[in-house]
Amino acid sequence: MEKSQKGSKKDKFLSVFETFGRSFLLPVSVLPAAGILKGIGSAFTNENTVEMYSWMQNDALQFVMGFLEMLGNVAFDNLPVIFAVGVAVGLAKQEKGSAALSGLLGFLVLHSTLNFLLDATGRLVDSGAENADELMAQAMQTEVLGIQTMDLNVFGGIITGVIVYFVHKKAIRVQVPQVFGFFSGPRLVPILIIPAMAFAAILFFFIWPFIQQGINFLSLGVLKSGYAGTFAYGLSERLLLPFGLHHGINWPIRTTPLGGVFTIGGQEFAGTINAYMAALGDNGAIDSMITRFSAGKFVFNMFGLPGAALAMYKTARPKNRKTVGSLLLAAALTSFVTGITEPIEFTFLFVAPALYGIHAVLAGLTMLVTNIVGAAFLTPTGHGLINFLIYGVLQGMRTKWYLLPLLGIGCFIIYYFVFKFAIEKFDFKTPGREAEPSTITLHGKDETREKMGVKTQKDKQKDKEKEPQNANGLALHDQALQLIDAHGGADNITAVDACITRLRINVKDDSVVDSERIKSDLEAMGFATSGMQMQTIYGGKANQIKVEIQDILGLAE
């Protein structure tokens, strides 16, 4: 009995992580394309780069590249609000429109409240000051959707989405007095989100300064510890990145004495970027201690993470690889070309958090080794192929750019085998590893005809009917009713969801589920279980059936 209860708790825990991870796929899906646009645009519009190469000082080229950078920035500058809405929608089981509106409203309330509190206590930085950007960065403040607020980055969006989910889950079923009946159900959620997010903002207002102090203390410790500090920086910077807190150690290192003070050509330069740009203008050798917080990023961005992507692809179920491969290839290319790693890191972060911990350790070791061998290339922004060519290769042999491919091959191999071993050993549910039967029937003649736009007389006849039917002539509504019955009835069903091809029904008692009936009579392409979740393959129709079942269960309540 105890073993059964432990197993049930484990299944529930894994199910929560799986659901939480899937909620990130929507906001993450916009990053690869936006990352490529931003990476290419920023590489050719960076002031230091343009100053070095006269051929870039072309109005037409700068206009085009500036336009590309602007398009990419639309997503990255607003990533926190995208996550606030995306996570809320992804976690909500029903009434997703209410969740989306509440996510946006909650995000606005969070930062508007923080703005009010900062202003009321005299801590709001003067945005009109001559050095406003520097002062705001030092105070960990930023501007979000026109609101000057604390720099919570993506973490603020994630927290908003999660809070919205819990409020939405409870409030959507609350029955208010009849006189206020209009505000019940989904209309109640955004109303309750206002005080909920205001309270969350108050907590952030008091807690965040301590987080800032911790980050500052960490950066000081890293800088004073030599090679060990290089490893510590790589480890901590990766661990802080998902929450948007990595800027707290990146900015001071790049632009202030915290990054070191270096004497070049008889002058002192503070910060790694200033020192590197000065070193490029000097004919002497480049001190690898200037680049120790940058060079290793090129290696694991361009080679390590693509190795991890290949490992996830190889460990996916064979029939899932085509779908998973497109996601991972886009993320890997984004990391390699532009150095923007969020797409691939978020792909496995919340599905298998332990893998991210492994990645953070490997990133620290990669930066340490790169520093020890004397690599001397750095970039102001974007550790990918484009900036490597500009700031590494084109600067000549003194940057020791040739070390990158040598180190990169080893990094790729290590990431690949470590990730592959960990995924298989601990059965991490990375994309494509969910239990399911073969979906080869998805590529049958009916699917092919539909894709090509070819319709038979039978298809045309179906188009005339009000309601879609399956091969047994079973109307969608009737099919949904029979699926509810085959899963033990409405009382046995706790949740209904769907991904691209699978209908997912969570049940209280799996022993009463008639899987044979589902496969033989209800036209399922396959059937599998994951704990107490019943997964039925229906191809592109899965979401349609989900909505119908949710409507029926809602009427039953």
Topology:
Blueprint: H1 2-23, H2 25-28, H3 31-45, H4 47-52, H5 59-77, H6 79-91, H7 96-120, H8 132-138, E1 141-144, E2 147-150, H9 153-171, H10 188-223, H11 226-240, H12 247-255, E3 261-264, E4 267-270, H13 272-280, H14 295-315, H15 321-338, H16 342-349, H17 353-372, H18 385-391, H19 403-426, H20 445-452, H21 457-464, H22 476-486, E5 493-498, E6 502-507, H23 515-520, E7 526-530, E8 533-537, H24 542-556
Antiparallel strand pairs: 1-2, 3-4, 5-6, 6-8, 7-8
Question: Quick gist of this model?
Answer:
With 557 residues, the protein is α+β, with helices and mostly antiparallel strands. It has 24 helices and eight strands.
Can you offer a commentary on this structure?
With 557 residues, the chain is of the alpha+beta class. The chain folds into 3 domains: 17-219, no CATH class; 257-426, no CATH class; 440-556, Glucose permease domain IIB (Gyrase A, domain 2). The protein is built from 24 helices and 8 strands. The protein has helices at 2-23, 25-28, 31-45, 47-52, 59-77, 79-91, 96-120, 132-138, 153-171, 188-223, 226-240, 247-255, 272-280, 295-315, 321-338, 342-349, 353-372, 385-391, 403-426, 445-452, 457-464, 476-486, 515-520, 542-556; strands at residues 141-144, 147-150, 261-264, 267-270, 493-498, 502-507, 526-530, 533-537. The strands form 3 sheets. The chain has a 4-stranded antiparallel beta sheet with strand order 5-6-8-7. A two-stranded antiparallel ribbon has the order 1-2. Strand 1 and strand 2 form a beta hairpin. It is globular, with a radius of gyration of 27 Å.
